[in-house]
Design goal:
The protein is α/β, with parallel strands linked by helices and 142 residues long. It is built from five helices and five strands; from the N terminus they run βαβαβαβαβα. The chain has a five-stranded parallel beta sheet, with helices on both faces. The longest helix is centred in the last third of the chain and has 14 residues.
């Protein structure tokens, strides 16, 4: 989703979703210019976020692997201090969402609304012509 290759513009909306169930299912339909990467485990959350440079991260609490969502969020907050990285908790469990909020999530989102919410965010970014700031290797806006 979104062009690649010489001269291609960076997607105007980028998101990473950490969720094993969403990774196993069919991806939701997104508008052109949006890039959403879905990962089934949170062990490499920092590396994935560094590589993808998303505007928002959606994090489940329990998924494949051994790292829980709250641990991954703490790791992300340590790795990217002071940045505008938005993290939303998407666990079906209120207990899991509460733990992720304590760990540093900015809010919660119903798992059933993930693709609709991502589509809405991408459309708004596209309509407004937002070119959200790119971050350098330290995670600071460039």
């Amino acid at each position: 989703m979104g062009g690649t290759g010489p001269g291609a513009r960076a997607p105007c909306f980028r998101a990473v979703v950490f969720d094993d169930l969403l990774a196993a299912g069919a991806p939701g339909e997104l508008p052109e210019g949006a890039r959403v990467v879905v990962v089934d485990r949170a062990e490499d959350a920092v590396a994935v976020v560094l590589r993808e440079r998303p505007h928002v991260v959606l994090m489940d609490f329990e998924m494949n692997g051994e790292t829980l969502g709250d641990e991954a969020i703490r790791d992300l907050r340590v790795a990217f201090p002071g940045t505008r990285l938005r993290i939303l908790a998407i666990s079906a469990s209120s207990h899991g969402n509460a733990r992720m909020l304590v760990a540093g999530a900015d809010g919660t989102l119903s798992k059933g609304r993930v693709w609709t919410w991502l589509r809405e965010q991408a459309i708004v970014a596209s309509i407004l012509g937002l070119e959200l700031e790119e971050a350098d290797e330290t995670g600071e806006p460039g």
